[in-house]
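User: Predict structure, ligand MU-OXO-diiron.
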Amino acid sequence: MALYDNIKYVGVNDHAIDLFEGQYTVKDGMSYNSYLITDEKCAVTDTVDAYFIGEWLENIDRELGGKAPDYLIVHHMEPDHSAGIKAFAEKYPSAVIVGNKKIFAMADAFFGADAIKNRLEMNEGDTLSLGEHTLTFVFAPMVHWPEVMMSYESTEKILFSADGFGKFGALGTDEKWDDEARRYYFGIVGKYGAQVQAVLKKAAALEIEAICPLHGPVLTENLGHYIALYDKWSSYQPETDGVFIAYSSVYGHTAKAAKMLADELKKLGCESVEIADLARSDMAENIANAFKYSKLVLATVTYNSDVFPHMRTFIDGLTERSFKNRTVAFIENGSWAPVAVKVMQKKLAECKNISFAQAAVTVRSAVNDASAEQIKNLAKELCGE
Ligand code: FEO
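Assistant: Predicted complex:
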C-alpha cells in the first residue's frame, strides 16, 4: 500500500487476536504498522507481532522486488512491534538496525546479544539521511515504554509516532477513531500524561502533515483534532461536560438507583449522561469514559466491608492511571452495614483535584422514598442547581 511515492505500508492486520496485551478486547482486531521508505537507502520502520513475521517479510520483499533494505528502524521494543527483529537481521545480514541505548539493551535481552550484529545507536535529535529523506529522532520515554523514540521525516513532514496516536482495530474497519483511540490511550499510556505532554511540546516545534503510528490508520487530515484530544487526555482534562455513572449491583436495587439518577439528570436537562453496569461492559471503555466526562458517579453495594469486586477493579484502574480533575459522587447500598461511600472515598484520597459531591445516596436494600429523595438531590447538585 503506497502512502507516498516513496513511503509504503508493509504492516499487517491481526483479525485472530482475542485480547490485545492479554487484557483488552479488540472486536475489530489490531494492526501492527510498519512502513518502508525507499530512497538511495531503504529503511523499514519497526516489525510486527510474532505470528505475522512471515507475512511482514513477504510485504517487504514484494515492495523491494527482492532487494535488501539498508536499515530497520526500531522505535519501540514491545513485542507487538519488535518480534521480527531477529528474523529481519537473519534475512538481511547487511542491514543496520537503528535504535537507541535502551532499545539495544532490551533487544539483547529478548534475542540474545549476538542477534543484532550491525547496530547504529541514536541519541535525541540525531539524524539519519536516506537520500532525499532525513529522519530526526525524538525520544518519547514512557510513551509507552522507557526506550520509545519517535522519528520525524522532514521532506514529507511525517511523524512516525510509535504507540502515540494509535488505536485499537485493524485497518479498514469502520469505527470512530476517537472512541477506540481513547480506549487505547487510557488503557496503554493513561498513567503517563506528563510524558505525553513532554512529547507534544517537542512535536509542536515540528511542521507535521501526517502521523504514522504503530497501530491504526495513518492520520493525514484534521491533525489539530487528534493533537487537541491528546493534549486534553494527557493533561487529564475532561473532554465532555457530562456525567458517567458506573454501577455494580447484585440483585438490581443499586442498578435501579443508578438508573433513577440518570433519568433525573436527563429530566434536569443534563444531556451528556452515560451509564454502565461494570459487570457487563468493557472495563477499558468504562475507564476511558471516566476520563472523558467531567463528573463520575460510583454506585455499588457494600461487599465484605468493601465494595463489589467489579467496582474495586474499576477504581483501581482509575487510580493507577492518575485519575484527577473531576467531580465524583457516590451511591452506596447495604442491607446491614453500608460502608461503600467511605471505602470509595478512601480509595480516591490520593487522587489530585477531586471534589466529592455533598449529596451522597445511601440505599438500604431497596430504593425507598428517602433514598429516592437523596437521588433527586444528587441530580440537582450534579446539574449545578
Ligand atoms: Fe503497541 Fe507499546 O506497543
